[in-house]
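Look at a sample.

——
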Amino acid sequence: MERITLGHVSGVYGIKGWLRITPQTRPAERILEYRRWWIGDEQGFMSRVVSHRMQGNGLVVELLGRDEEPITDRAIAQTMIGKSISVLRSEMPPLAEGEYYWVDLLGLKVLDEALEPLGVVTDVFSNGAQDVLTVSGEDKTHLIPFVVGPIVVSVSMADRQIVCRWSREW
């Protein structure tokens, strides 16, 4: 069962075992649309959000622990700092034509319009205005705005490649 990371535990909040969550979803509260979260790696556990509220750029949550009871101890909550939050891929909604999950763009080859290789997508992030591809090439790393039309000419998941209006020199 493939899991997709949607955020991580970035700290504790208060004395009652609540956790600070840094979501990687946009908007941040979209992470709450998933009923079950996998906390941590292969030795982690499935959890559910008991209560939540937005706090700054992230959110704070009360979660169920391994015993299916709410985590109420700050010391237990502290052991979860840095753990990833993921969901089963099968629980993610299907996307409309031309939409992509960031995780699906990782590893795609990026070519310029002459079909010369620029590199491979190693990261995707948002700069606030648009998504940006980090494309690692042999001699250079490019930060390419993921703007379909003016910059991104095509995305082919079947061919595992993206064609961009971009130059190796930029």
